[in-house]
Amino acid sequence: LYFLSFCSISYNIDFALVIPISVQHRSVSEFSCAILLRVMSVPPGEKSKAQLRAERRAIQEAQRAAKAERKGGGESSLNAVAQVEKHNSNLVQKDSFTSISEADTISQKNSNKMYDGIEPHISFKNLGADYLKQCPSDVETQTLAVLEALKQMIEDYSVSPGKSSRREIDTLIDCCFQYIAGETPFPPNIATLSKQLKWQISALEDANDEEVKKTLLDLLDEFQEQNLTLATTAITMTVADVVKKMKEQPVILTYSYSSTIGKCFCKMKSMGIDFEAIVIDDGPQGDGFKLVQQIVPCDIPTQYALLNGIRHVLRHVNLIILGAFGILANGNVLASVGCCQVAQIAQTKNIPVLVLCQTYKFCEKVMTTSNEACWAGCEVLPAEFVTGVVSEIRMLPCTAVPAVLRVKQPA
Fold first, then answer.
1. Which residue, 36, 83, 143, 178, shows the most beta carbons closer than 10 Å to its own?
2. CB atoms closer than 10 angstroms to residue 126
3. Rounded CA gap, 338 and 220, in Å?
4. Which residues contact 134 (CB under 8 A, 6 or more apart)?
5. Rounded CA gap, 248 and 274, in Å?
6. What pTM value is reported for the model?
7. pLDDT digits over 17-60, tens only?
8. Mind listing the pLDDT tens digit for each residue in 163-179?
9. Right CATH for 239-408 from 3.40.190.10, 3.40.50.10470, 1.25.40.20, 3.40.50.720
10. Can you tell me the distance from the alpha carbon of 35 to that of 10, in angstroms, rounded to the nearest whole number?
């Protein structure tokens, strides 16, 4: 009735002439076609925009009604509209279930993916596809896992007949790194490791299979010793000197988890340095709780608090130490989400903030905001909130990163 009233007002249609019999005695298609013929009989020169829109709507209604009659055999137009709405809702439901199914099977598809016809080694498959996409709670643990996977891959490697071992193993390493990185750029620690491996492979002459494997395994062992073991010891010595020079009882606050900070605290306690530790966490029993479990057995007085209560414990703190995911060329620090808040609050209280970071995590990239960080769980800490960077070289300002990178470039 609403449709008939609309048409009678818009087109001045006399429905008694067009439809002489009752609607309920005629089919839906005949009813719609009768209206459509009468609407289209208006001369073209007299049509307005509103009339053209009404014509299009009438055509669509006629098509829907005819389609509904073919399917249901005389169903009303209201039932046809209900069927269309139900069909649309089913399509939306189907799309949502398809998305869930795709999300559930994406890891399985990535695990079966091949790069340039080469399948990743089983050690990298154990790490998982897109392993480097997430900002880890501890970078050193991630680096050790990748080093162990590389060692296992090189030990299992055997050169194919008629191929250069140097080129083939270089392609295999690229394939494995691409598998664990996915579409995400390499983090600073893995980027440095990849560069050193490529430089060493390019420097190798055409040697036999065993010599190439031995050279690369020695490189990985040296990388682990220089950048993880010895660098952590040197950083601990520098932090210990800073704590010894403090006039008041040292109360050190840290955020989240870092194995370097845990080793540093335990080493300082074994050196006879008395201090208190406050561990701030982003949630109950989060990553910071791992640090508490690591340092409490070393008889270090420890407090555990959440990030929303940092102001209540900050009045006793005289030094803040943070871990780092990497340091950028412009001096900004890649750190866990929440470090910016800790550093900003520390600046209001004039508390120095030290960042512990080995030089192998220095990178040439430049980022200014956390939106540019492409690793989940990572944010950019501005350089103005950092007092100094403690590395294996010495305590450095954040702006010294480009100079260190130039010195560490392979000849």
1. 143
2. 12
3. 33
4. 375, 376, 377
5. 11
6. 0.69
7. 344 444 444 454 454 444 444 444 445 456 777 888 888 888 88
8. 777 788 888 888 888 88
9. 3.40.50.10470
10. 13
